[in-house]
Amino acid sequence: MKKRKHQTSEVSEVYKAKTSEVFTFHIGPIPIYGDTILAPMDGYSDWPFRSLCRELGSALSYTEFVRAADVLNRPHYVESKLAYTEDERPIVYQIYGSNAEEILAAALYLREREPDIIDINMGCPKSSITNRGAGAGLMRSPREVARIFETLTHALDIPVPGKIRLGWEDRQNYVEIAQIIEENGGALVAVHARTKEQGYKGEANWDAIAEVVQAVSIPVIGNGDVQEVADVKAMKAHTQCAGVMVGRGARRNPWLFSHLDRDEVTLPQVEKTMLTHLSRSLEFYGPERGLILFRKFAARYLSPYELPADLRKKILTREEPGEFKELLYEVMRGSGTRRSGR
Predict the structure, then answer these.
(1) CB atoms closer than 10 angstroms to residue 202
(2) Is 60 contained in some domain?
(3) pLDDT per residue over 257-314, tens digit each?
(4) CATH number for the domain including 157?
(5) Which residues contact 170 (CB under 8 A, 6 or more apart)?
(6) Residue 292 belongs to what domain range?
(7) Comparing 34-43, 52-61, 260-269, 328-337, which segment has the lowest mean pLDDT?
(8) Residues 29, 110: Cα–Cα separation, whole Å
(9) Which of 61, 134, 193, 328 has the fewest other C-beta atoms within 10 Å?
(10) What is the tens place of the pLDDT at every residue in 52-66?
(11) How many CB atoms lie within 10 A of CB 272?
């Protein structure tokens, strides 16, 4: 798939108004402007949502992760995950696998698509992935981690960072893995401050992020329990990390990248962003699939409001884009849009 043509959008105006405080660091030679980054999320950080978050202020564009074996053996399967627009740069492709040779072959294939950075996923906690020795499962094999980074950093002419977890409950080796990444040429480490077993539950251990910051000289990005603007500032102050990665919190509030908490976002801004997102989803996936995939985002956009259950169900089950837009217009201007306080 070719890189997509740039589409302009008024949502970027929100970001333009909130750029008085910008934190800058480097990933290898690449300068990064901004301190908040949309996390790569399977099924969520696709082009429609990712490009929207980039315009709102996300400092990088991480694609959804792709399996090295799929890149090599069925590239058509990952085509949609690899599409990006030039205005999203810096673009980060994230891949996962369990051995250096396969990951290198996949990385060399992906390099032809001209990303700015290729990242190694060592943070996914899904058993279907970790049982193969990939994702967080790779953290159980420090020697293989070293081989992967040594091999890729010698073969590629772009930075190779890694995203990790704390490890497993019986082996929380996050400092060791971070140091291995640095020692073998890795340009950055992003730390999701939970163990494999925690998944996305429980409290993130920000102290662990601070330990990694102290243990390496490459930039560290923190990830975990960031829901509000204050959380971004608190994590940076607590850990001294270079940037903050936001995952689930961004699905409800992509305006966080514009330094806006959800209760600061006006109804017109919500409506405009939803319509822009829907338009991109329809263009990217087609009318039927585009609307279906947009519904999960629409549910989160509307979650702060006290919509009657029947009205909420009605708008989230529309099968025609025109019907959805008409009902959204009605909802946004109706009495059912009072904030719920959540």
Answers:
(1) 12
(2) yes
(3) 999 999 999 999 999 999 999 999 999 999 999 999 999 999 999 988 888 888 888 8
(4) 3.20.20.70
(5) none
(6) 266-337
(7) 328-337
(8) 20
(9) 328
(10) 999 999 999 999 999
(11) 17
What tens digit of pLDDT does each residue of 78-87 get? 999 999 999 9
Q: Report the alpha-carbon distance of residue 140 to residue 133 in Å, rounded.
A: 8
In the block, tokens 């890795």 appear at: 186
How many CA within 13 A on the CB side of residue 159? 21
Looking at residue 19, its pLDDT comes to 43
Kindly report the three-state secondary structure assignment for every residue of the chain.
CCCECCCCCCCHHHHHCCCCCCCEEEECCEEEECCEEECCCCCCCCHHHHHHHHHHCCCCEECCCEEHHHHHHCHHHHHHHHCCEHHHCCEEEEEECCCHHHHHHHHHHHHCCCCCEEEEEECCCCHHHHCCCCHHHHHHCHHHHHHHHHHHHHHCCCCCCEEECCCECCECCHHHHHHHHHHCCCCCEEEECCCCCCCCCCCCCHHHHHHHHHHCCCCEEEECCCCCHHHHHHHHHHHCCCEEEECHHHHHCHHHHHCCCHHHCCHHHHHHHHHHHHHHHHHHHCHHHHHHHHHHHHHHHCCCECCCHHHHHHHHCCCCHHHHHHHHHHHHCCHHHCECCC
Average pLDDT over residues 42-58: 96
State pTM to two decimals.
Answer: 0.89
Do 146 and 179 belong to one domain?
yes
What pLDDT, in 10s, does the model give residues 68-105? 999 999 999 999 999 999 999 999 999 999 999 999 99
- Shared domain for 252 and 274, answered yes or no, is no
To the nearest 10 degrees (0 to 180), the angle between helices 321-332 and 287-301 is: 20
Q: How far apart are CA 268 and CA 218, in angstroms?
A: 41
Q: Residue 340: pLDDT band by 50, 70, 90 thresholds?
A: low
